[in-house]
Request: fold
Amino acid sequence: MGGVQGSVKFPGLSLYSASKAAVAVMTEVLAEELRPRGIHVNCLAPGSIKTEMFREAFLGVDEAFDPEELAEFISDFAEYGFEFFNGKILPVSVTTP
Reply:
């Protein structure tokens, strides 16, 4: 799971944000490398999720998803939705914190 280019950035999260950028590039490269085998590689980039880390970092911000809601979406995407995409970073968000 990655982040989204152009989303809001926050001080103190440079390493976290850099790791999300690395996931995005790796997704694009692996999609090309594995295309001949018929393997799809995509990256889901969720927005705000109700986690302890999020609540501590963003006091007072309303979260969009419960972890269980996101898990259900990811499960459905892995089973059915992936075949429509390859090498894509897909935002899964109604907010950017």
